[in-house]
Design brief:
The longest helix has 23 residues, at 460-482. The protein has 848 residues and is α+β, with helices and mostly antiparallel strands. The chain is 27% helix and 28% strand. The chain has 6 domains: 2-74, no CATH class; 87-223, no CATH class; 226-377 and 410-431, no CATH class; 480-581, no CATH class; 608-755, no CATH class; 757-848, no CATH class. Strand 13 and strand 14 form a beta hairpin. The chain is globular. It contains 21 helices and 37 strands. The strands form 8 sheets. Strands 7, 8, 9, 10, 11, 12, 17, 20, 21, 22, 25 and 26 form a 12-stranded antiparallel sheet that branches.
Amino acid sequence: MKLKWLESAPKVKAGVTFGLPWKKGERKTISDVALDHYPIQSWPTAYWPDGSLKWTGHATVINQDASEHMILSKQQSDRQQDHQGIVIKDQNDQIIIDTGGFIYYLNKNGSSIIDRVIDVNGHMIANQVKVVAVMQSIHENGDCRSFIEQDHLGQISSVQVEHEGDIQVTIKVTGTFGENEKLKFIIRLIFYYQLERIKIVHTFLYNGDPEQDFVKGIGLQLSTELVGPVYNRHVRVATNSGVYNEPAQLLTSRRYRQSSFYQRQIQGEMVNMSTVNDVRVQAEQHAVWQDFKLTQTSYQYSQYQKRTAQTNAWLKIPSIHNTKGLLYAGGEQGGVAIALKDFNEKYPSQLAVKDLAKHQTKLSVWFWSPDQEPMDLRHYSNATHVQSAYEGFDENRATPVGIANTSEAYLTFFSAVPSDQALFNLAEYSQSPYLLVADSAYYYQTGATGMWPLIDKTTNAKRFLEDQLARLIQFYKSEISQRNWYGFWDYGDIMHTYDKARHQWFYDVGGYAWQNTELVPNLWLWYSFFRTGDADIFRMIEAMTRHNSEVDRYHFGEYKGLGSRHNVSHWGCGCKEVRISMACLYKYYYYLTADQRMAELLDEVKDADQALAKLDPMREFYHRDNHLTHARIGPDWTAFCSNWLSRWERKKEQQYLKKINIGLNTIKQTPHRLLSGPTFKYDPTTSTLIYQSTGNEGGYHMVIAFGAPQVWIELADLLEDDVFKDMIAEFGMVYTMTEQEKQAFSNGMLSNQHFHWPMFASGLIGYAAHRKQDSDLSRQAWTLLLDQERSGISLPVKETTFTGWQAVNEIDWITTNLVSQWSLNVMICLQYIAEDLQINFDSTVINK
């Protein structure tokens, strides 16, 4: 199998972990694969119902001269691994990791996560790797208000070997800050065989009082012992086009302004000045710069500063404001590079060095810079704005307690002075870590990546639709930078509805601001990536996955397992629902990257239906009946099924398949199957749906607008359940029925007033047309998508330019709800009824 790099071939030696799908029945084991001439570690990540492998994870270490394409092939039986592999020693108070290049001593308690890093010669490269936080608390005494700032060291709660093998090992560390555990952290340290680098996945969880507890800084610190005189101590920063160097002491002076020593020093070379000379004597009169910090204050703007001592002022280093999020501190025998992925996008971030010229030099990676304003996690309003601003329930549940944020950092250790090019390449890698992917045809053929069609432009109509899909994706790509959708808490999300009067999005109007997975743009982007292989789309959905799975949902506390609906504040809406956290929105990131944090998040929601016992999603309409709560067949039960399917296919736990079948069998026995309800009573203790009536509260467009077609069809295919498939088709057919036909179908319980936004059902109508071989259903499906008055999408998609207060490109009718649902439904119809597109295209688009 030919694999390719997501972006470009490697320029630095790096650990690469990637995932691959397989056809049903193709593989029972994965121990017999090889990746070109590189050793590879492989393991299963998901299974088909017959027990064969559905997805597998793989890890390897790739050299910087790797080819553009890699071949995954069957390993020869006589092939022997030519390396020892990573060695783990689990002791009483430490875990020792020997990667074959360095030995890492990890503590099981205290505040130092990594006690020390030793090279093969026994020299200590780094020590005292700690998680740090700065908290700011408000104290009021009468009319006086004061702020108290306090530094905290994270205290280790647990350490475990989460994943191990010859090539990659992941250590999971959990801990807390402060006496009341107002902040929690999860650190994953990822080691690769004979690689002088640690990948760090840092998760920060908030457990404070947003009215009192403000996070002023959150980060990592480590110490190192640099070798050499002050003029051979350097801090180097990767900019957008190269590497900028600042020594601790300049080898220039009023007499020897441009000496050869100085020229070489500024090039990053180590200068031999063991013999006293005039240049050195003059230079030694210069200030010694001890502390350096690179702070990202906004997207694409950094502030670079240095100072001589803590008691002296910071000096701004001019001209450095666009960087690649990597800083290196070193001496004559190498040093340490620290890098932060999405350094620009997730501001305010910071990389810092302290005591460059002293015996112990400290380096810091700040996910939130302590030099900037503290995090303000309070809600934007003291009231709810249900009627005016689409904020859901009239309940103020705007709490950040239980949300999280995950960032990736890299520590690279050098035993010799690296070149500028090596550091620049490392900076690029740190922002876009290498990933091996397959081509679209392979993903499609496996049937393991959801429901989407291969790109086909063989007719005018197909070409037209593919162009519209591409234009909409490109618009959102550009809109992220144009509208500055960046920041620690915002990056990865997109906005909900555009305000053409202000030429802005409704960033400040209740439920029209941040999208928070509403109408599943995640699935739109995942399928778009699988169809195109576009690296930009992958990085966009990667950021969205990180954001939505962490910030928009609760990981502990009152709402654990639920997420917050769209709002000005990501956690602001009173509607806390399971649909925001459902597994299908995130699982492809895990399958493609084998990311252990994402696996943890998928596990976290396996029993998310239990949260409904505390918070009934239909509490506005129905009273509780003893221990029973309520669940709509969609999005609630659909989200449960997505979570249960994830657990079943990843862990082969039959109890979760049983939960799916309990609900499915109940629905089959109701009078109108998937058209029953939409709201059922629900028993969380038995996973049982209890039929109430047909046509009750809930809305049939709500049933299908949050990924139900994608979840249902995937499940029906996995279960090979023809009755379920007929039920899905029936749902689409009923949406197209006349008033009289709906009444007849439901014995008078359903009418047109129950069925809103028919475009949302166009995919299921197309599915029904395919299953029933009904050209009239096919015509209705395509009409809903191609007729602007029915779809809400103006075709062809065109941008205009507003040149008022600022020149901005815009599509003034756009809403993310419409775009994501239209795109997903177009994909379903292209999958099932593409052969009927041209005739319907000619009669709707061309003739309008």
